[in-house]
Amino acid sequence: MKSLPFEKVTIVMGSRSDWATMANATKPLSELEVPFATAVVSAHRTPQRLVEFANEAHKKGTQVIIAGAGGSAHLPGMIAAMSPLPVIAVPVESRFMTGMDSLLSIVQMPKGVAVATQAVGASGAFNAGLMAAQMLSLADSELQQRLIAWRERQSDQVPLSVE
Ligand SMILES: Nc1c(C(=O)O)ncn1[C@@H]1O[C@H](COP(=O)(O)O)[C@@H](O)[C@H]1O
Q1: Nearest CA to ligand 1 atom 8
Q2: Which CATH architecture describes the domain 9-156?
Q3: What does the entry list as the binding residues for substrate (predicted)?
């Protein structure tokens, strides 16, 4: 069996079907030259893999975890319960309630276990990647400079006029 991948930012998701959403988290990371790895880890379907991932990530060089899941989305909270690393969560749009179930499952954490929940879907995933880069930039001044330049390019792309 393949072993779990670990990188500075490790992105996990509850199912292969979450990839269309979670791929958006890789965009800012690639643009900002932050190394990342991706894997499918499910609290429900692969509980042993979840325990191994949450216990090992900080020992294997991961500094920030991004976790995306839909529906009964226990993955981010369970990782946060076991890992000392910051966990940024992405509620994936679900078939039943278009992501409201995912959002509420993820955001309502009990006091004492923190998860940084983003918006539902692709924009939330993109922002999760951006937030991970911003966290890492606290200890990486070159990355901080790339972030500042990235922000300036974003501003330049917003037209002043509607005509
Ligand atoms: N919420 C979770 C967890 C978990 O939280 O551990 N594991 C899988 N899932 C979610 O089930 C949805 C449907 O999965 P399938 O498309 O594989 O049936 C996915 O959005 C996944 O994140």
Answers
A1: 14
A2: 3-Layer(aba) Sandwich (3.40)
A3: 15, 18, 45
Q: Are 25 and 13 in contact (CB under 8 A)?
A: no
pLDDT digits (tens, 9 = 90+) for 136-151: 999 999 999 999 999 9
Question: Rounded to an integer, what distance in angstroms lies between the CA atom of residue 29 and that of residue 81?
Answer: 25
- The owner of tokens 């509607």 is 162
Residue 158 CA to residue 38 CA, distance in Å, equals: 31
Tokens of 109: 């954490």
Q: Judge whether 68 and 25 are in contact, CB under 8 Å.
A: yes
Which of 75, 87, 96, 101 has most ligand 1 atoms within 8 Å of its beta carbon, as the pocket-test mutant?
Answer: 75
Residue nearest to atom 17 of ligand 1 (CA): 15
pLDDT at 63 (0 to 100): 98
- What are the residue boundaries of the structural domains of the chain, listed by start? 9-156
pLDDT digits (tens, 9 = 90+) for 8-65: 999 999 999 999 999 999 999 999 999 999 999 999 999 999 999 999 999 999 999 9
